[in-house]
Amino acid sequence: MTPELERRAPAPVLAARGITKSFPGVRALDRVDLEVAEGEVHAVLGQNGAGKTTLMNILFGLIHPDEGELYLRGRRVRFRSPHDALASGIGMVHQTRRLVPAHTVLENLVLGHPGGRGLLDLRGARREVEALCARYGVHVDLEARVWQLSEGEKQWVEILKALYAGVRILILDEPTSALTPPEVQVLLRALRALVDRDGVTVVLVTHKLPVVRAVARTVTVLRAGRVAARLVVSDTTDHELVQHMVGQEVTLPAVHTPDHPGPAVLQVEDLSAYNDKGLLSLRGVSFTVHEGEIVGVAGVTGNGQEELAQVLAGLRPAASGRVRLLGRDITHLPTLDRWRLGLGYVPAERAEVASVAALSLVENTGLNYHFDPEFCPRGLLDRDRLERLTRQILATFRVKAPHPYVRAQHLSGGNLQKLVLGRVLSRRPRLLVAHLPTQGLDVEAAAFVRAQLLEAKARGAAVLLISEDLDEIFAVSDRVGALYEGRFVALVPRSEADPETVGAWMAGSMGRPA
Amino acid sequence: MKIGVYRLSVERAEAPSPTRVALGALLAVALALLLASVLFWTPESGPWAAYRIAFGYAFVNPSGLGATVHRAVYLLLCTLAFLIPLRGGLWNIGLPGQVYAGALAAFAVPFWAGARELSSGTAGGVALVSMPLAAALAGAALGALVGLLRAKLAVNEILVTMMLNSVMFWLVSDFIKEGGAFMSATAEGESFTLPEVFRPPLPLGLPPSAFLGLAAAVVVDFVFSRAAAGYRVRTFGLNPHAARYAGIDPVRVSLWVFVLGGAFSGLAGYHYFAAVPGLYKIPTNYGYYGDLSFYGIICALIARGSALGAVPMALLFAGLSVGGRFAQGALRLPFGVDYAILGLLMTTFVLSHLVDRYRVVWQRAAPAPTSAPPRPEGAR
Asked: How far apart are alpha carbons B155 and B143 in whole angstroms?
């Protein structure tokens, strides 16, 4: 703890000491301390996978730490379940909604209310909730069914539910990720009212710097399961916060960028797309990827990267704008025709999208070849040929698999990822779109995958690398950019940016000029 | 669990071998018959008499065997109708409706030919081809509707097919009851009898639809194991996201599996009402035949998606339903024992599937030097 923070901070209302939590194969939290003072907004900042949500789930009693203690108003507490946490006045609003869609808002609010004694007093509940809404300037139709509400409204129902239950400490996990900008403003105003007027304590998990700046007094920065810093927000700069989030200076390996880029392979003009919730999450991006070039796109999940990758692969319709592959307009072309034209797509979900768990590796190779006349003469799959190719991929990409007829579900994540990449690259694509290609991989596998991206580039492929890992982006990219709320904050040659600047872009800040 | 120096444990098994599957099926049949023997116990005779009568009629008696085989073909066609969409991850519960559509379309051919009043004449080979064709097309059209609703509007195919079953049931009623287009001359709530010239020939005592059904089973298995089209359907059935990633068009898959499924149901309707000796009309109790088509679902599920594997299943179900009904009459058994046997059979088959998922492992509990082969590194 910095001396300054100690001097200013009142006694913590909620504290965690030495929290350690491991999941199979990964240490999510490593001796984490957290202190939250009464009546303040305390932000927990960090990149994806830093351990923020795990820590919050421990505070709420959803999961139990391997080591460490929790203190509430100075007294040691043990939460066996969220029920205990709620009884102690701690409420949590999760990233994903936990409401009954077919019930009305009021019915959802009453459900599980600690005052319930078997009989519902809906009229009394309505009066109380209406008073709450008026107090915080929230407009929610209490008779509406939850499935009819927007994401922002649903989130409000959850917050109201916690307040109605009499919660004094409110944990919000990424509350702004599903909201539109005006909804974010309403939420931030209400949070200030909650804290300033009613003395409620808020723990706010986020990876967005503007949100931290807007409401939080203090902040704990997590990086890779450890506390990187604890600071008073007004005493720090965005630059400092980003540095804590991203980590130490990164040494860059040499990436050879040719002086003159090759011809354009992918041209994207003013492309927009809706996400699954019907929000415009990709908002008019334009860029070009040339032959023999890797363009690295950074961004925190949920800022339009997934939509961009899917639109390029033909798996999501473009709302507006244009996509050209090798000069040909493919905006409305089906996925299959894009594969034939030379697209190669490595999606982020290797197990759910890029492979079929119940099929053998040979049949999984078929995913990228079932339309190829060489592998399907007269409409029949040439299994021998598929098997030969699969064996070749297993060998070249160093996939550890007992034999090519093992089911894909038996491969570990890293091996499956190498297999998927191998399958896609075996087609020698002209354009490779790789989304989070090293997510969850160990260091060695990740390095191998990156080397393969560079090799594809050397062969003349245009590569669009979408990643959250700045080290990765800087390790292989010729140009780097970041998506924030569906737009490019910037897209510049690698030499004109550094990880810190791009980290600031990812958090929605322009950062210091490079 | 420890027994002596051995430790007994139950582990999840990989895919069972074909021998094991066959053995399990036989055991399931034996267990079902054993359980059902309680129902066949009458004061006068033990269960074996009932089984002798039932199996004797279904598989030995010439007229009983004929009925069994015809019914088995009907069930096989219904099995294909369910199995093809199932491989694409879709559930065709619309077998009765598609069967009715096929029967109506088949009878529409002689109706339009003005043959209702004909007792003899020369309809010729054209009619013999056009009747099954019309039946298949009608079933396919009904299936196409379901497939399109599923693919384009994501309407649940189970609900649509079940509602269509009711629609088609009453449509048949409207056609054959008093005043209906296909009403019989005596207005007995059944359709007119198919004139002889429209009845297909019976080489080896079997109508052409029987050979068609068997050939289709071979082709369906081949397509699903070897052809790119079958691969696409299977992939879509196992993981629709991966299928889309691979450029497999979900609309085409949903549409085609239901078109083909509907066509086979339609053919089944033609087969049972217009090609098999004994009926040659849509009878008053057509609903019974419609319900029978649901055994196609059971056959497909028990045969684990294999069309040829469903052939013995179809024969067994057909024989038990035909013979069970006969034994019921002969021994004055309570009503419904035939259904009871079929129900027990389903239960024991499902049980055998469950057992197949696991295997019992005996191990010496004493820590003998490890001679087990090392686990492959990439596996987990």
From this structure: 13
pLDDT for A316 equals: 95
Kind and range of the H or E element at B148?
Answer: helix B124-153
- CB pair distance less than 8 Å for A353 and B242: yes
User: Cβ separation of A415 and B241 shorter than 8 Å?
Assistant: no
Q: How close B77 comes to chain A (CA, Å)?
A: 25
- pTM, to two decimals: 0.73
Which domains are assigned to chain A? Answer: 3-98+169-246 (3.40.50.300), 261-342+430-442+460-514 (3.40.50.300), 355-428 (no CATH)
pLDDT confidence of A117, banded at 50, 70, 90?
low
| Cβ contact A366–B235 (<8 Å) | yes
Among A335, A337, A405, the residue to mutate for chain B (most B Cβ within 10 A): A335
CB B10 within 8 A of CB B358: yes
Distances (CA, A) of B75 to A141, A240, B167, B203: 54, 73, 22, 20
Q: Where are the beta strands (DSSP E) in A162-263?
A: 169-173, 201-206, 218-223, 226-232
User: Hunting for tokens 């709620």 — which residue is that?
Assistant: A86
Q: Which of residues 413-432 of A touch B (CB under 8 A)?
A: 415
Q: How confident is the model at residue B369 (pLDDT cuts 50, 70, 90)?
A: very low
| Residue of B201, B379, B220, B197 whose CA lies nearest to B310 | B220
Q: What ipTM does this complex have?
A: 0.80
At a CB cut-off of 8 Å and minimum separation 6, what does B187 contact?
B178
Tens-place pLDDT, residues B270-326: 999 998 888 898 998 899 899 899 999 988 888 888 999 999 989 998 998 898 888
Query: Between A and B, how many CB-CB pairs are < 8 A?
Result: 91
* Sign of the CA dihedral running A484, A489, A494, A495: negative
DSSP characters for B245-277? HTT--HHHHHHHHHHHHHHHHHHHHHIIIIIST
Domains of chain B: 40-333 (1.10.3470)
What is the number of other CB atoms lying within 10 angstroms of the CB of residue A111?
13
Q: Which residues contact A98 (CB under 8 A, 6 or more apart)?
A: A158
What is the distance between the alpha carbons of residues A342 and A106, in angstroms, rounded to a whole number? 53
For residue B372, give both structure tokens: 């087990």
Out of A334, A379, A400, name the one closest to residue B228 (CB): A379
Residue A411 in contact with partner chain B when CB distance is under 8 A: yes
